[in-house]
Amino acid sequence: MAKMKRTVVVASAMVALTACAPAGYNGADPGVAEPVAVAAADSTSTPDPESSADPEASAEPGASASPGAEPEADAPLPDGAELTESLTGKKFPRMGSAVVNQDGFLLYRFDRDSNDPPATNCEDQCAEVWPPALTDGNPKLKGVSDDAVGTITRPDGTRQITLDGWPLYTYIGDKKPGQWKGQGVGGTWFVVNPDGSKNLECLPKGTPKAVEPPSKTKSDSSDSDYDY
Q1: Which residue has the higher pLDDT, 217 or 47?
Q2: Where is the composition biased (Low complexity) (predicted)?
Q3: Which stretches does DSSP call E strand in 31-131?
Q4: Backbone phi, then psi, for 128, in 5-degree steps?
Q5: What is the pLDDT of residue 52?
Q6: Alpha-carbon distance 185 to 169, whole Å?
Q7: What is the largest CA-CA distance in the chain?
Q8: In what order do the strands lie in the sheet with 86-92?
Q9: Which candidate, 166, 27, 172, 16, places its Cα nearest to that of 87?
Q10: Exposed e or buried b for every residue in 136-164, given b needs 16+ CB within 10 A?
Q11: What is the DSSP string of 117-171?
Q12: pLDDT above 90 (res 34)
């Protein structure tokens, strides 16, 4: 991954959004893909007459797992994390198209990630500020094409939703549904369109800085290299 120049933000550069700003925004205090759904087993196949006559005939050594075998379980969710149960494409005044989760919070994509192949580069403190949209593999979709939705397995073993290959996130700086305080943060985070592309509407002036990671705030550490 190419190393990107760290963005330095001074107080004078932390300018509030234009008239596109969501309510409550304060620029000086910014607060290979896996398919989503698993196909059902084919119930139209004709059983072998001989194996039907002998119930034990199907239990041959070396046979593939039975249709009823349980898939490998995902890793447990991190403390405080919730599954993203739905993706909904909708329109917002001034912002235009966006994708929201079941709670109405906007979803974002990260320029330092990759969609070919799909991969995340947001871990640790970054993931504290930009929580991944985790999934059990079967989110409900509305206004979003199921052909564009997939998942990746994160380094911790959890599964994250992708849209056109781009991993999706929420932003802890958005305190209520419908806000988009994460738009343009660091010059690398953008609201995602229903087709997975970047929404470049309602961009802020300057380069907003992300809120501090909760772990850094608790430890009162000043030497963190967090710059997402």
Answers
A1: 217
A2: 36-76
A3: 34-35, 86-92, 96-100, 108-110, 114-115, 118-119
A4: -70, -40
A5: 42
A6: 13
A7: 81
A8: 96-100, 86-92, 140-142
A9: 166
A10: ebebebeebeeebbbbbebeeebbbbbbb
A11: TEE----THHHHHS-B-B-SS--EEESS-GGGEEEEE-TTS-EEEEETTEE-B--
A12: no
pLDDT, tens digit (0-9, with 9 covering 90-100), for 138-152: 899 999 999 999 999
Considering only CA atoms, give the Rg of the chain.
22
Backbone phi and psi for residue 112, each to the nearest 5 degrees, phi listed first: -85, -5
- State the Cα–Cα distance between residues 175 and 37, nearest whole angstrom: 31
- Cα of first residue to Cα of last residue in the chain, in angstroms, is 15
Are the C-beta atoms of residues 14 and 27 closer than 8 Å to each other?
A: yes
> What span, in angstroms and rounded, lies between the C-alpha atoms of 218 and 5?
27
Token code pair at residue 41: 């087993």
- Which pTM was predicted? 0.70
